Every structure is written in C-alpha cells, then in structure tokens.
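At this stage, I wrote out one protein, both as residues and as discrete backbone shape codes, and that material follows here.
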Amino acid sequence: MIVTIDGPAGTGKSTVARRLAEELGFQFLDTGAMYRMVALQSIRQQLTLTSDEEIRCLTESSQFDLSGGRYLLDGVDVSQEIRTTEVARAASFVAQIPSVRTLLVQRQREFAAERNVVCEGRDQGTVAFPYAECKFYLTAAPAERARRRVTELQASGKDVDFDELLKEQTARDQRDAGREASPLRPANDAILVDTTSLELEDVVNTLRELILNHPAFQHSQL
C-alpha cells in the first residue's frame, strides 16, 4: 500500500509522514531529502544551479540511502547538512530540472516496490505514485508555515529572520507551483487538510483513521 502526502514547506508533512509510517509499520520515504542531497552535492561542487546537464550527471552518479532514519549521500551521513536554509533554497532550483525529477522519481518507485510506504513531497500523488491508494495534500497559512520553520531552525541553534524566511518561502512556492516539470498541486483525488490551526497529533490522528479504514490497508496486512 502506498500513502502519499504532498504540500508546500511548513505544513508538517514530513513529521506527519514519519509518524504515520512508524505507527502503521510502513516504510517512510522523505523525497524532499533526495532533492536536498542533490542540492548539497551541487553546492559542494560549485555547480550552477541551472546547469541542467551537469546536475543531471551528478544526480545519476550519486548514491542515496534514506533507510534507518539517516540520510547517506555516497555513504556519508548528511542528515544535518541538508537541513540548512542554503540547501533548502538550492533544492528548489535543482527540483525544477526535468531530468533530475525523472531520475529521482525512478528511484522513489524502486524504493516503494513491493513495500508498504508513506511518502511525502510535492509530486507524490500526481507524478511519482498516481496510483497510490491514499493521497493527502496538506496546506497551511503562509505566516504559520514560516513561523513553524523559524521555530524549527531556532531549536537547532540557527538565528533566522522571520520576514526574510517568509519572503524566501513565497518565492519558493511560486517556483514550485510555476515550474513546468511536476508543478506543486494537489492530485485530483487527494484529500486536502488545512493544518493551520491543528496540532500535530490532530493531523496524525485524522490521516491515520482514514488510512486504517481504507480497504487497501486491510489487504496490506494479509
């Protein structure tokens, strides 16, 4: 069974997806981390973020391991490095390259083959897994999303300006929604959940009940 959770940054989709995977006994696939790994590698190699061919070749030659709760890039743990604001900004640029998206979607499908998976991203229900049994799309007010991100970064010891982060978030939303390759949008059959005024537990509980009551979940347990 495949559960997809899409939506813009700051809606809580990564945390919700990870929790659901743990509680359901499913595998968790953080697809955003893949794009961040490509971005990190591009920064390290000082590549131009709009250099399609160079970044495609880099993506093709890189090894990603997202199992075990760690993020390994070519065998090296980059769990902390991929969470910086610089890498997040770069990821939104490399994610616009069609060939990069094609390569990473292929790897996502390989990961999910013959598994029960909860995956999160921006095109999981529309492109990567259009046949997924359960599709969700999380939203939240822009200011609330920015506030959550600031809180997250400050908790890790980073000093962040709210207004600057909100400005960058808006620009990223526009890039994600306006790109030609896999634009950010809910799948036609996705369930929309506004998380603005909801606690994490409320979102997890709502989605979990919908999944548990889906016929595909019962089949996945056989």
Remarks:
- The CA atoms of residues 85 and 153 lie 9 Å apart.
- The longest strand covers residues 134-139.
